[in-house]
Amino acid sequence: MTTTKKPFGLTARIIIGMTLGIAIGLLLQLLMGKSGDFTLNLGLFEFSFKAFFVDGIFEIGGQIFIASLKMLVVPLVFVSLICGTCSLQDTTKLGRIGGKAISLYMVTTAIAISFAMFMAFIFAPGEGVNMTTSTTFEAKEAPSLAQVFIQMFPTNPFAAFAQGNMLQVIIFALLFGIAIALSGEAGSRVAKMFEDLNVVIMRLVTILMNLAPYGVFCLLAKLFATMDFSVFLNIFAYFMVVFVVLIIHGTVTYSVLLKVLTGLNPLTFLKKMRDAMLFAFSTSSSNATIPVTMETATKKIGANNAISSFTVPLGATINMDGTAIMQGVATVFIAQVFNVDLSITDFLMVILTATLASIGTAGVPGVGLIMLAMVLEQVGLPVEGIALIIGVDRLLDMTRTAVNVTGDCMVTTVVAKSEGQLDESVFENENAGRKIEEIDFHHLKQ
Fold it and tell me: 0.85 cut: is pTM over it?
């Protein structure tokens, strides 16, 4: 009797893809050297390693993978949130869930940036750094808090879908779901259609998850083939402070909150987060990781879809703990580089600004630098200092995105537990959700 069972689970395959990607990327960087390319003269033409591998295969494979994940975000959030809203018998419950989620997200962000600034002040990564006057950074204008709240409500929902504006999609989905719930028989028929759509979309998520090791390989191979390690070495102290704070916040802070608020085992939770964290690390995008995060929250952790369909996309939009940590350390770092003394008022202003700025921050790579510019301006620090940290921000962006999605699932678990919407038998089952990850592409009828 033959079996089609794969020798490795999804997590193992993703780790293999990551490891091979990093190794091949570093090998290519060694081959290309300072010139940034390695060519072979084959007579009629020259073969360029950079053009063929870095800008060709790896770029195409990585971007197709990212595009495929982003393709699912809007339909997944829209359909799942409608299903979740329709299942709520009491609309006041929706406000209670939202209040709990937003409060937890804001609290964890404030804890993150406060701890980050404390660590940066203790270890002083910016002392002794020689600032050059040629360093520049042109910051985009950050939206005001009033604009953020106004722009939460769509004037054209189809434009919100096309632009991937998650807050607007969430608002429209909530209103649409409430309207369905209040529409009697007609609403029931429409709700059934959305429930079927949700099953199909989640299966599509599973298909993409099985292709993830190849996408992860391409993304990391290109990143490590083109990374400027000389810049990385110059600000190693800054990098290490941010990295250590991210790890502590993602493991210790979330674990303590989970244990105190739910009594659940934090180690079980972190084990179940492995796939989502690996996806987030590879893509550097909370939004692109939403499909995997929702799959983890519902199928592996046991949160009801009525909760996760709201808290996960909301978290991808407003929960930026990792970004807040980067902003806290970077603010202290840049102040030390420019020999600017920050007062207690300045520290409090940074904490408040960064916490509020996380609302409406897009869950896409690199957006933290834009928000950092706003934070620096609030306390009178030169925005040009951001150019010092751009070189290592890509690596840190990967790590802080993994922290962000872990926070999304932690808050989802806490809210689900408080509402009696958490299946603890699923949470305690180590193999929960593993079966759905396996797809036999040779036999589509399953």
Answer: no
